[in-house]
Design brief:
The protein has about 120 residues and is α+β, with helices and mostly antiparallel strands. The protein has two helices and seven strands.
Length: about 120
C-alpha cells in the first residue's frame, strides 16, 4: 500500500510539473486592446467624393488607390467614388487616369473630396 501511495504521489507530482511547464512556457503575451480589436474586425471610415477635369466635367473610370496598399476603386459613370480606409490610418489617395496628371491627396480627417485632375501637357480634354 505504501508503495502504491508513493507511486500515486510521484505520478501527481509529475502531472503538476508538466502542467506548470505548460502554464509558464506556453503563455502568450496578452494582446493590447487595439490589437485584439484589429484581430476581430477592422473599424473603417468611408471616403467619398467626385473627380472632375479642369472644365468641371465629371470623370468616369478614374483609378482611386490607397497609397501603399492594393485597395482601390474606380469612379462611376458620373465621376463619384467610395472607398473604405481603416479608421485611424494615415491614408493618401492616388487618383490616376490616362491623359491626366496623377494626383495624391493626404486624407487627414477628410471624409469627402472633390478632386480636379489636370490634363497632361499637350493633351486637350
Amino acid at each position: 500500500m505504501a508503495k502504491t501511495l508513493k507511486s500515486y504521489h510521484t505520478f501527481l507530482a509529475s502531472l503538476f510539473v508538466i502542467a506548470a511547464a505548460f502554464f509558464l512556457f506556453d503563455r502568450r503575451p496578452e494582446p493590447a486592446a487595439n490589437e485584439l480589436f484589429m484581430e476581430t474586425g477592422h473599424m473603417t471610415a468611408d471616403i467619398e467624393g467626385t473627380v472632375r477635369n479642369e472644365d468641371g466635367t465629371l470623370l468616369p473610370e478614374v483609378h482611386v488607390l490607397i497609397k501603399g496598399t492594393q485597395r482601390s476603386t474606380l469612379t462611376n459613370a458620373v465621376g463619384r467614388f467610395l472607398i473604405s480606409v481603416n479608421a485611424g490610418e494615415e491614408a493618401t489617395l492616388v487618383f490616376s487616369l490616362t491623359g491626366y496628371q496623377s494626383q495624391e491627396i493626404h486624407l487627414g480627417t477628410k471624409t469627402s473630396l472633390d478632386v480636379m485632375l489636370k490634363a497632361e501637357s499637350g493633351q486637350a480634354r
